[in-house]
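Help needed: design a sequence for this.
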């Protein structure tokens, strides 16, 4: 049974969403603000966190930043309808996805299940569905081990979230071939889940930034404007 942490200062959301998730077979922990959640996470991390952005004491951005210093567990942000800047910033900081309020609880459940399934594959606790998913990928200076969820560039480890790993894997599997945003969406999300182009773009920007932390000259992921992205083996 996967443990989901739900962090929101809206008690109605905490009550209704936790009831839905528990009915779907999840164990749910609820927290009224980021500080309360962080104190609990310092003792034991859940399998996934669903965070509101705007909360008292410690907001979702601050909580995510602290989480990413110790864990790459999946994180979904809950954002209000007009929080476009917060959505992009959250993705760049390490969130795997976001859901806008008001939201369909069924959609939230599907996104949670999709990310948990992928996390299981990356952790090696669930079998890969295809041979390629478990095969070590070596492309120039890049090495990816899907079963260990391990990535190295020029021999230096790079910590990626599940979504970032899947996008890099999709690009690196076929160097020189262009992947459209729609194709990358299919890789990173279930068919039932719709995301717009900005979400994929934000993930790619964050992926590049992480690789540039170990190599400031990293340029293997090329943008083809209006088309998509391509991995160029160096």
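Sure. Designed sequence:
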């Amino acid at each position: 049974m996967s443990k989901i942490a739900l962090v929101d200062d809206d008690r109605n959301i905490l009550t209704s969403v936790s009831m839905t998730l528990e009915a779907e077979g999840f164990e749910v922990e609820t927290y009224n603000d980021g500080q309360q959640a962080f104190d609990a996470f310092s003792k034991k991390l859940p399998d996934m966190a669903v965070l509101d952005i705007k909360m008292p004491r410690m907001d979702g951005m601050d909580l995510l930043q602290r989480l990413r210093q110790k864990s790459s567990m999946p994180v979904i942000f809950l954002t209000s309808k007009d929080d476009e800047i917060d959505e992009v910033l959250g993705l760049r900081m390490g969130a795997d996805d976001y859901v806008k309020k008001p939201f369909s609880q069924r959609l939230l459940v599907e996104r949670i299940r999709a990310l948990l399934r992928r996390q299981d594959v990356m952790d090696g606790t669930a079998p890969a569905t295809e041979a390629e998913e478990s095969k070590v990928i070596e492309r120039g200076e890049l090495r990816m081990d899907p079963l260990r969820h391990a990535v190295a560039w020029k021999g230096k480890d790079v910590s990626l979230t599940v979504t970032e790993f899947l996008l890099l894997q999709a690009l690196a599997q076929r160097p020189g071939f262009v992947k459209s945003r729609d194709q990358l969406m299919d890789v990173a999300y279930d068919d039932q889940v719709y995301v717009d182009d900005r979400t994929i773009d934000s993930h790619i920007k964050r992926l590049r930034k992480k690789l540039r932390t170990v190599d400031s000259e990293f340029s293997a992921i090329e943008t083809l404007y209006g088309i998509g992205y391509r991995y160029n083996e160096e």
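The longest strand covers residues 3-7.
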